[in-house]
């Protein structure tokens, strides 16, 4: 398998707090890596560092062989290659659903309006909200908005998709409609890094689970191995708390 993201000895502090401690991991093309662990373990910071929403103190992160640029046009280009879906949907509230998905295509990918519209409608259909294209985001449910946010990221044809707790702001009945879209992407071979509390998704879609605690990757394994036979006391303790409820 070909490496797509290489994180090499990365450290990050917020003031006195050492949030990423010498993190090293490789994510291969077509791999779905799910990052789990207790709150404050550094999961979201790692996810955000991969597209430089967070700067790092030292170490390196490369995407498809390119080191992360620090700013400017090169960084914008990199961000177009790295789709990101957040907890909150971050849609443009003053634009329709369709416009939300065409904007980046027009501005960054320089597509024609007709091509951008066509691609947007294909993606809205794929995530199951094509009938909502003319609405404003505020007219949609949380689950629908998050599926639009996924379509918006996909519209840039990214090399990798990062998901930072994409279902944590949703009502329980909406979680599955978003996870189903993500499972579909995984089956289609999209490279994905997913920070989540959804253990069912980790079991079903992940090729590899990274378990983080206190800023470190404590354990990494296949979902089968991790959920049935976690090696570290920290992971055993975590799973005993999350899997019993």
UniProtKB/TrEMBL annotation:
<dbReference type="GO" id="GO:0005524">
    <property type="term" value="F:ATP binding"/>
</dbReference>
<keyword id="KW-1003">Cell membrane</keyword>
<keyword id="KW-0472">Membrane</keyword>
<keyword id="KW-0547">Nucleotide-binding</keyword>
<protein>
    <recommendedName>
        <fullName>ABC-type polar-amino-acid transporter</fullName>
        <ecNumber>7.4.2.1</ecNumber>
    </recommendedName>
</protein>
<keyword id="KW-0067">ATP-binding</keyword>
<dbReference type="Pfam" id="PF00005">
    <property type="entry name" value="ABC_tran"/>
</dbReference>
<dbReference type="InterPro" id="IPR003439">
    <property type="entry name" value="ABC_transporter-like_ATP-bd"/>
</dbReference>
<dbReference type="InterPro" id="IPR050086">
    <property type="entry name" value="MetN_ABC_transporter-like"/>
</dbReference>
<keyword id="KW-0813">Transport</keyword>
<keyword id="KW-0029">Amino-acid transport</keyword>
<feature type="domain" description="ABC transporter">
    <location>
        <begin position="5"/>
        <end position="239"/>
    </location>
</feature>
<dbReference type="GO" id="GO:0005886">
    <property type="term" value="C:plasma membrane"/>
</dbReference>
<dbReference type="GO" id="GO:0015426">
    <property type="term" value="F:ATPase-coupled polar amino acid-transporter activity"/>
</dbReference>
<comment type="similarity">
    <text>Belongs to the ABC transporter superfamily.</text>
</comment>
<dbReference type="InterPro" id="IPR027417">
    <property type="entry name" value="P-loop_NTPase"/>
</dbReference>
<dbReference type="InterPro" id="IPR003593">
    <property type="entry name" value="AAA+_ATPase"/>
</dbReference>
<dbReference type="InterPro" id="IPR017871">
    <property type="entry name" value="ABC_transporter-like_CS"/>
</dbReference>
<dbReference type="InterPro" id="IPR030679">
    <property type="entry name" value="ABC_ATPase_HisP-typ"/>
</dbReference>
<dbReference type="GO" id="GO:0016887">
    <property type="term" value="F:ATP hydrolysis activity"/>
</dbReference>
């Amino acid at each position: 398998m070909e490496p797509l993201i290489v994180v090499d000895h990365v450290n990050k502090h917020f003031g006195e707090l050492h949030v990423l401690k010498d993190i090293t991991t490789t994510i291969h093309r077509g791999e779905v890596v799910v990052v789990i662990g207790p709150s404050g373990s550094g999961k979201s910071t790692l996810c955000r560092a991969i597209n430089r929403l967070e700067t790092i103190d030292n170490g390196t992160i490369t995407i498809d062989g390119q080191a992360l640029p620090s700013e400017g046009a090169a960084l914008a280009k990199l961000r177009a290659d790295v789709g990101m879906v957040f907890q909150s949907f971050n849609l443009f509230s003053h634009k329709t659903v369709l416009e939300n998905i065409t904007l980046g295509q027009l501005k960054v990918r320089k597509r024609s309006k007709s091509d951008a519209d066509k691609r947007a409608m294909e993606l809205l259909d794929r995530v199951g909200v094509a009938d909502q294209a003319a609405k404003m985001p505020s007219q949609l449910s949380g689950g629908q908005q998050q599926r639009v946010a996924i379509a918006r990221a996909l519209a840039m044809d990214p090399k990798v998709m990062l998901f930072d707790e994409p279902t944590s702001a949703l009502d329980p009945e909406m979680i599955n409609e978003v996870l189903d879209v993500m499972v579909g992407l995984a089956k289609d071979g999209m490279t994905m890094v997913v920070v989540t509390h959804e253990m069912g998704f980790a079991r079903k879609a992940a090729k590899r689970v990274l378990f983080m605690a206190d800023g470190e990757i404590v354990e990494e394994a296949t979902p089968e191995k991790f959920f049935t036979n976690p090696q570290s006391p920290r992971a055993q303790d975590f799973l005993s708390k999350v899997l019993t409820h």
